[in-house]
Amino acid sequence: MYLKVVFNLPIDKILTYKKPNEINESLVGCRVVATIKGKPNKGIVIEETQILDGDYTPLPIKTRIDNFPICSDKEFLLAKWMSKYYHCSYGEALFASLPVGNPSKKEKKIKPIDTKQKPYLKLNDEQSLALNKIIENIESKEKKTFLLHGVTGSGKTEVYLQAIKKVVDLDKQAIIILPEISLTPQTIKKFAERFQGKIAVIHSKLSPTAKYKYWQMIKNNEIKIIIGARSAIFSPTVNLGIIVIDEEHETSYKSTDTPRYHTRQIAFYKKEKENATLLLGSATPAIETYYYAKETNIIELLTLKKRATSINMPEVKILDLKKEKKSNIFNMMTEKLVEEINKKLENKEQVILFLNRKGYAPIVSCSHCSKVLECPNCSVSLTYHKNKNTVVCHYCGYRQFLTKTCEECNIGNLEIIGSGTEKVEENLNILFPNAKIERIDQEVANTTKSYEKIFKSFSDREIDILVGTQMIAKGLDFPNVTLVGVLLADMSLHIQDFRSAERTFNLITQVAGRSGRGEKKGIVYIQTYSPNHFSITCAQNHNYIDFYNIEIEKRKRSNYPPFSRLVRIVVRGEVENKVQSDISLISDLLANITFGKDVEIVGTVPCTISKLNKYYRWNILIKVKNHNILNDFFYKLKTTFMPQKGNYIEIDIDPINMM
Q1: How far is CA 137 from CA 264, 275, 295, 468, in A?
Q2: Residue 566 pairs with which residues in a beta bridge?
Q3: Quick one: residue 559, left, alpha or beta (phi over 0 = left, psi -120 to 50 = alpha)?
Q4: Which strand (E) or helix (H) includes residue 190?
Q5: CB 208 within 8 Å of CB 104
Q6: Which of 511, 518, 520 is nearest to 539 (CA)?
Q7: 486-534 pLDDT, tens per residue?
Q8: Closest among 219, 218, 227 to 195, alpha carbons compared
Q9: Alpha helix locations (H) across 460-575?
Q10: 162 to 130, 156, 169, 297, 645: CA distances (angstroms)
């Protein structure tokens, strides 16, 4: 008996091995260890056969990993679809959808989350209408996709909870996808308070053994509710009733590794194949999602226009940094914002300040020769971190201690330019000496426990001012926060990316939504050099519809999604002229195929970050009506093109990150 095995490698060929004589049961769906070019690799058996396809003697597998199949036809079919859609190998797609852990005799019993059970909340009219439509679909045979578009604080989570209750009552399973599990403890707690003992929370901090244990429990229908980040969408449900994707606009739902799948796309596939309801939720839906909900019958739109309680949305004021008087202590802050923070502190109210830039300062430059310290591995400047006196690359992790004198000219002193959250925290302590101030970014909250500690302290009102990056923009609900300050709203506005306005609007809207969620009135101050930009004025007015209408017209004129689909091809390698040579050959390959008007090829140019992790990077962006139009090109790329030694090709279907 022979085994057909696929591996987590960029090879399309399915390899054949001999099945050990002592194993009588089928190994289809089990992981094994087998040799490729003299090295052991983990593979998955996809077929057993008695027929050898050729005149050769297959090697035996070295060992089996799983005692029972870890995947079935359902996972095989999904992996085949992914490999075709995302242009990766069958093995890469299959491994992306499976847990990394192994079975263990010493598996620890997983404890449920310890929390008191709470009753369901009374819904307002808007929530009730939305819930009734979702439940009606859960009970029907023809399952729909819904977009629940609700302003921040409109009670979307309560709608999720009550829809999922219906699913559980029908003895079905639910998958809930959150952007980052470690940043959404309040949301997880709400689920635990309603469904104690029925939840699996899947996240990166779980041990591989625990992930494997959960996988088997889900597969055996022992767990009804699966909560997790991106990869939880692959959970092996046997009776799926609903998939919920919260904050569906989040870019973290797109994988940056092969296969470069999007969680939302996998959810659409599972919804169709497993006949489940799909519920997408956001205060700031992705432009493409809202378009499909508004202009087609692919998605049904449900709207929550007001907050769940009688509390109004916070007032939002714009502070023009070109005109406003700056604080003489810290010019990153206007006098108006400092004055308002003092008022809130006097009233024992809490403040959140947002700056999407970690570290102390983004640029270190020589006073004599003007040399800017850059990463030796990436084409980006190094960020100064004062508490460790180091400069750090936030892309590859390179770091070095900062010297006083420039090593380039040996004359000038190194000067610190700009501000990050570390510098903001330092100056806040000078401006507000009696306040308890805490910073939250990836440097200080680099583990789930450290984040939860800060979160609890802020929740217990032990912290007066919380300053942080986008980590504070997601799903936090603190009733005593009455002031949110966006210190520099322009940061994501001028990035070379057609989604820059959308990202700016989303971030401002989401972080502004943290203000005034209790009984006290909230206010938001947006400091900006672009006070009249539509993304900022629309965020000021909590007006997604106006923002969408302006942005969709821009997309239409430029033929960007949703009016086209994007494909990005990146060639990377350590020798730049080899990279340029290969990307030129791929460009020639494209040019020699007649596509007609439905394909637009945008440049053969260096990536925005032209060097990353020692690799030079060039890219081609293709706008296409339908990905299938490119099938001839992809076939020729796969069969006739061989990259030079040391070069790699990345194919990104529906790319999110254009850097």
Answers
A1: 19, 11, 21, 40
A2: 623
A3: left
A4: helix 185-194
A5: no
A6: 511
A7: 999 988 888 888 999 999 999 999 888 888 888 888 999 999 999 999 9
A8: 227
A9: 500-512, 534-540, 544-558
A10: 11, 10, 11, 25, 55
**Which segments of 222-286 does DSSP mark as H helices, in order?**
263-274
User: What's the CA gap between 554 and 566, in Å, rounded?
Assistant: 16
What is the Cα–Cα distance from 227 to 219, expressed in whole angstroms? 15
Q: What would the 3-class secondary structure string for 425-465 be?
A: HHHHHHHCCCCCEEEECCCCCCCHHHHHHHHHHHHCCCCCE
- Please report which helix (H) or strand (E) contains residue 139, including its range: helix 125-139
Token pair, residue 153, equals 């604080």
**Secondary structure of residue 391 in the 3-state scheme:** strand
Q: How far is residue 533's CA from residue 542's CA, in Å, rounded to a whole number?
A: 14
Q: Which amino acid is present at 476?
A: L
- Rg over alpha carbons for the chain, rounded to the nearest Å, is 27
User: Tokens 């091995």 identify what position?
Assistant: 17
Structure tokens at 423: 């510098």
The two three-digit tokens of residue 137, written as one number: 């679909």
Give residue 478's pLDDT.
86
Question: In 10 A of CB 612, how many CB atoms?
Answer: 20
Number of neighbours of residue 354 by Cβ within 10 angstroms: 28
Contact 16, 5 (CB under 8 A): yes
* Alpha-carbon gap, residue 522 to 515, rounded angstroms: 5
Distance CA(580)–CA(572), nearest Å, equals 9
CB 354 within 8 A of CB 472: yes
Which amino acid type is present at position 556? K
In terms of C-beta density within 10 A (0-12 exposed, 13-18 middle, 19 or more buried), how is residue 200 classed?
buried
pLDDT band at 354 (very low <50, low <70, confident <90, very high): very high
Among residues 40, 45, 39, 38, which one has the least CA distance to residue 15?
45
3-state secondary structure of 147: strand
Q: Hey, how many other C-beta atoms are within 10 angstroms of the C-beta on 543?
A: 15
Residue 36 tokens, joined: 């490729």
> Which residues make Cβ contacts (< 8 Å) with residue 413, sequence separation at least 6?
366, 367, 368, 404, 405, 406
User: For the segment 218-271, what is each residue's pLDDT rounded down to a tens digit?
Assistant: 999 999 999 999 999 999 999 999 999 999 999 999 999 999 999 999 999 999
pTM of this structure: 0.92
Strands 350-354 and 199-202: unpaired
Query: Which pair of tokens denotes residue 333?
Result: 């802050």
